Known about the structure:
With 178 residues, the chain is mainly alpha-helical. It is built from nine helices and no strands.
Amino acid sequence: xxxxxHKFTFFFCLAIFVILAGIFFDKIxxxxxxxxxxxxxxxxxxxxxxxxxxxxxxxKTAISSAKALGLMQLMPQTAAHIxxxxxxxxxxxxxxxxxxxxxxxxxxxxxxxxDRYDDDLILSLASxxxxxxxxxxxxxxxxxxxxxxxxxxIKYKSTQVFVKKVLRNYKFLKRLGI
Length: 178
């Protein structure tokens, strides 16, 4: 096997170990919050777990180069808008480093995207990663309304990789019954 496939296998196994360990150590992986908000907003918790893993590796203080914050890597402007919908008082971007608030806002936003794109996981995850405007442009450019989306339709390589990884982990967790 190639060196890269060994590296992939190692990191994939490591990811699965961390996720499974989280089932037993729910405080480490915020399993209670994920379960609560997944149920509240009607999003599969395996999808939320997979998204958090790819966004932050469960590091609640994660800050991206684009200034997205927390476990679910929310942009402060997006989070401020969501916080109004959820009637969160006195929102400020530092609240995104609070795991409960971040998971609540991120899961709500994921549900919003799933609804917007008719439960199309590829478009919803691509939009979570690249933005609604970008994905809407892709849809109009390739006349996607006439057919089902495919990962190859995603124009940004980094977003393609993100979607592939989230979907791979999501399918694996579903097979485990999570």
